[in-house]
Amino acid sequence: MDVRAVPSPDSRRAADILTMYRLAGKADGVQALLRWLARRTGCWVGLVDLAGGVQEASSRRYDSDVMALVADGLRVMRERGLRTFVVGESPGRSGALLAVDIPGDQPGSVQSGTVQSGSVPSGLVLAVVGPDPLGTAAPADAGPLLGVSWSAKETERTRRRVEVADARGREAVLHLLMSGNLTTAHQIAGVLAPRLYDPARFHVVECGVDRRAETIRICAELTGGRAWIVRCPVYSDHVLVVASANPVPADARPLEAALAAEIEGCVVGSGDALSLRDTAVGYEQAFHALAVARGRAERWARFDAALGLPVVAGRQGRVWADHLLGPLSGYVPARGTDPDSSTLTDTVRSWLAFSSAATRYLKIHRNTLASRLRRVEALLGLDLELVGDQAKLDLALRIGALPRGTDHGPVGMAGLALLAPAEDAFEALLRLPAVRQWALTQLRPVYEDAPALETTLRTWLRNDTRLSTTAQALGVSVTGARKRITRLEQVLRRSLLRVPNARHDLWLAVEALDGGRPDRNF
Fold first, then answer.
1. What predicted TM-score, i.e. pTM, was given to this entire model?
2. Cα–Cα distance between 201 and 22 in angstroms, integer?
3. Interatomic CA distance for residues 462 and 386, integer angstroms
4. What's the pLDDT at 108?
5. What residues contact 57, with CB distance under 8 A and at least 6 apart?
């Protein structure tokens, strides 16, 4: 005769408690416990607040009768200050309500099983509704574990909220630095810490989405707290670092080299040591250096500094830029709710740098971006689908961002000033000897080191830097065209495929040497 041992109630309860402890230790301990309780009791199980709102439940599906029963029981608990209450609807269905204590909450004073203040201390109640909600001791035993798991969950939520708030604050400081609003940036940085150091060097670390937290920690350790570290709002695998240009100790290895050594697989691009007012320039330099670093065994690179075209253009460039940007600078919207000149300028500057990713950088909808760009096109008479018009506007904005001198005398190049049409003034600007020398410097690496890629570069520019039409014009696959342009990145030491890239400078350089025909040889 097969005689099987029947577990005693005490041993079954002990097994239940062990199971609940194991479930409570999971990341989703609250949900795991509620689902297990539902299976163990055959009831609907949920955590509700004193107003009857369901915070967590074993199932998302529950009928109105269940909630009506729970609401009746909660009303009695509030009125009488009870910590437990059983409410019965029918012999086949009733509800058990048990107060859940959350560690760290201030408990009310309890007298004879009631809360003197008339409220449940934690504000959470375990509700078990079904044929026999108290058929086992599991609901009562689960209460303390639910309280601990809920506390852990709320602590994690709070930690994440603090991290999000901190990240947004740091991103806001980055925006202020990029737009040149140094006073406010210093004020916010002083609260969040660390303070901003001037001069600084911009670094872009490409590390993978899942390694950004580790990268931020290592950056903070290597810089000794002398860096402003931000999760890139545009690229989810980038960390941006604005670090003091004076390392501590003074003989320390470069931060970019240290990061590449400490973080396996990361790639680092760094700009020049610049004033904080030139943070936007530093970012573009670091991004271009990043493109070069991807092709290097050491996985890091510094920007190959060369005098920028806005500076080379001099006062002649200032006159031309002021003339081109005049309609935008003086724009006053018809309605107070419409974007003003400053908003339109910030928008188009971000779009020129990040293309469609400007929506993530500016936190605006793509339709809002498109609407603002159409307004800029109408004001300036440009077609921003064309890389040439983009390049002109980008140059004008960069010239406009330079500090203004006090000398307003004649500019030379007769007719360049406001006496000539905008296009004539632009062509005269590109004919300046200093500008043509700058252009030759930009393009010499292709001419001397990779002449076979000259056709690729010109075709890419002639097709407004669109990869698909470039590939078609070259008679190669899109993958083949991408490989050629990747090779150009290494030759030119500039980013070309990912924004911000050097497409505008390259178009201007070719235009300056060709006198208006970007398909002519150097």
1. 0.65
2. 50
3. 9
4. 44
5. 34, 44, 45, 46, 47
Q: What is the DSSP string of 145-183?
A: HHHHHHHHHHHHHHHHHHHHHHHHHHHHHHHHHHTT-HH
Instruction: Write down the mean pLDDT value for the chain.
Output: 85
Integer CA distances (angstroms), 317 to 74, 234, 393, 400, 417, in order = 75, 31, 12, 9, 9
The sign of the dihedral angle between the CA atoms of 170, 289, 306, 519 is negative
Asked whether 20 and 145 are in contact (CB, 8 A), the reply is yes
pLDDT band at 519 (very low <50, low <70, confident <90, very high): very low
Better pLDDT: 121 or 423: 423
Which of the two residues, 383 and 132, has the higher pLDDT score? 383
DSSP string, 455-503: HHHHHHHHTTT-HHHHHHHHTS-HHHHHHHHHHHHHHHTS--SSSS-SH
Instruction: Estimate to the nearest angstrom the gap between the alpha carbon of 26 and the chain centroid.
Output: 30
Query: What are the residues whose beta carbons fall under 8 Å from the beta carbon of 255, sequence distance 6 or more?
Result: 201, 203, 219, 222, 223, 227, 241, 243, 247, 268, 270
Q: Output DSSP code: residue 435.
A: H
Residue 122: its pLDDT value, please?
53
On whether the CB atoms of residues 138 and 16 are closer than 8 A, the answer is: yes
Task: Give the residue from 339, 421, 420 showing the smallest Cα distance to 381.
Answer: 421
pLDDT in tens, 425-445: 899 999 988 899 899 989 999
